[in-house]
Each structure stands twice: as C-alpha cells, then as structure tokens.
Amino acid sequence: MAASALALTACAGSSTPASTGETSAKTATSAADLGGMDALVAAANAEGQLNVITLPPSWANYGKIISGFEAKYPGIKINSANPDGSSADEVAAAKAQQGQSTAPDVFDIGTAVLQQNLDLVAPYKVANWADIPADFKDADGKWYYDYTGLMSVGYDSKVITTPPTSMKDLLGAAYNGKVAIKGDPTQANEAASAVYLAALQSGGSADNIQPGIDFFSQLKKAGNFLAVTPTQATVASGETPVVIQWSYNNLAWGAAGGTSGNPDYKTVVLPGSALGSYYNQAISVDAPHPAAARLWEEYIYSPEVQNLYLASGAYPATLTAMQSGNTVDKTVLATVGAPPQNFVQLTADQATAAAGLLKSGWASAIG
C-alpha cells in the first residue's frame, strides 16, 4: 500500500538470544517445547524486543493490543513498522530484511498473499489451539485465523446525505471524486476485498470476481474513483469522504475514534451478499526474536485479546469457544451484535485465483 514498503521504521536494537538457546526458540512448535509458558516468557524477556508490521493503532484495536502486551511483559519493547502498509509489504520486508534485527517477527496477513509465501512462516501451536476451529487453521500450525469483519461502505453523512444501499449507488453523480479503497488490490487484501464485494453485488461470485473489476472500471470512467489511499486522517479532513473497507475500520474512523475520528462518518454493510475475510496470524521463519514472536501469538489468542478484537467490531477466531467457556465479554458482544452467520469468504484456492485475475486485469481496468 505504501510506496516506502522497504523503508521500515522499526528500531534496529540488538537482540539477546533466548535463554533456552536461539535455535530451540526458532524451532519450537509449542510452549511445551521450551519447557512451558514460564520458560517461554523468560526466553522472550531475554530477547527484549518484538517486531510487528502493518498494524495501525485504529485497526481491530491494535493500539490497545500492543500497549497491553508491553504492559503485561514490560521487559519486551514492541517495534511497530510501516503501520499503513499492506500484506505484500509484510512479505517484501521479510525478504529484504532477512537476517537483520529489524525483520518482522510476526505477520497479520491476508490469505492470498500468505498462500503464495508459505515458505516464510514457521509452525507453532498456541496453548488453546483446540479453541480455534479446524477450518480456521493450518493443521501443522503454520497459520491461523485471528479475526474478521464485513466489507462495508463508510461515508461522511454531511457530504453523502442519503446512505448507499448498493454498490450501484456509488456510480451516481453524488459520489463524483469521492470513493476510495485501501490501496492497490493486487497488493493489499482489504483493497482486493472491495473488488470481491463489488463482484458479489454485480452478479459475480467467489469463483468469478471479474464483475468486480468491471465495476471499478465503471467507477473510474464515471469519475467517482478516488486514487488516494484513505487513512483515518483523510476521513477526518474530508479528503476521502467515502471508503470501502472492513466494518471495524470504518467504525473506528467515525465517532468511535474519539478526537481522531469524524463524528459525521457513518458505516453501512450493504444488503444482499456480504463479504467477510479472516486475516491470518503467522510467525516468520526468520524471526529475529523467535521466543517473543511465539509469546505474542499466545497473547493474541488469549480471551483477553480476542475480546479486544471483538470490542473493535472484529469477530475473533475463538469466539465460539469463548461463548461456550463463558470467557467472552457479554457486554461487548451485546453492543457489537451477533456474529455474521451467512457471509461469503473466499477459500485459499479462490483467493489465489482472484489474485491472479487482479494481477492481469486491474491496471488496464482503471488505467
């Protein structure tokens, strides 16, 4: 998404090898391999740092999640690189920074990009592995779903006074020069998902996203497609009054964003076919802080953090187990609403095929 994909901003700081031996931390497939959680924490503290990438503070509550980790483990400093980057930027950084202390330790990554780069991830199973549904994870632990929302339309209600009810509405004159998506669909999962939603709403399917590409071609010809990558700041300033993105991000950029949000910015999940997409957690096989990377995943899948995802409007992967085990925050769940029961999510094969079609046809469609 960002042009400076390789200009990482993380602190380079030196890392101390895990007390159990860096090699064993790199190859551990569970906390038990290192002697249990206490040993994993000790090893992570010895390393003293964790490198994350493309995690904006407003995205799925990552601001609170990151600060919560540092508060729980004060001996570990989180270096957050390229917060407005894309899934492709994560891969580019991992390859360019291989063997360096600034390389990403962990990924929060879209399915299509992940499936093309499985050689970059290391297997690891968190302590509550059983709480993650079987079809939400790789059997060997190379990746696991973390959260999903629904693709939605955010709009500044002072500019767009009638809420959109379909993607077709966005072709109207009221949207001239106003509709943005989160970057390049050939690089960023969220931008690609905007195309997938357009496909579903235009007679296409998860197996045929061409109608979505055609829709954006029409949007461009109508003069409505805005070639600006939106951020919370551009929404607050009015530069990008309409954004197609995940519901939890649109919500965070409105009144829920407090002083950083736009109180007039509203979110609508369009009727008809809805699109969801779980993102994936994974550990880099080349993680410079392998114990801290594994501790981060243990933290992410704890009910504490899964409830933080939920509070942002993102439905966590272990929600069903949390409801059964009475660890879900019922007040938050009541506020957010019931999880989506029927929505389309592209499978790994469908996402890979869709990515290929976008790569061959997107540039000419909006050129």
Task: Give a brief rundown of this model.
The protein is built from 14 helices and 12 strands.
Q: If you had to describe this structure to a student in words, what would you say it looks like?
A:
The strands form 4 sheets. Strands 3, 4, 5 and 11 form a 4-stranded antiparallel β-sheet that branches. This protein has 367 residues and is α+β, with helices and mostly antiparallel strands. The chain has 14 helices and 12 strands. It is globular, with a radius of gyration of 20 Å.
Number of strands: 12
- Computed structural class: alpha+beta
Portion in strands = 5-15%
Distance between the termini: 18 Å
- In the predicted model, the low-confidence regions spanning at least 5 consecutive residues are 1-23
**Cα radius of gyration in angstroms:** 20 Å
Q: Output the helix-strand order.
A: HHEHEHEHEEEEEHHHEHEEHHEHHH
> Mean pLDDT score, rounded?
92
Major sheet: 4 strands, antiparallel
The count of helical stretches stands at: 14
Helix amount: 25-40%
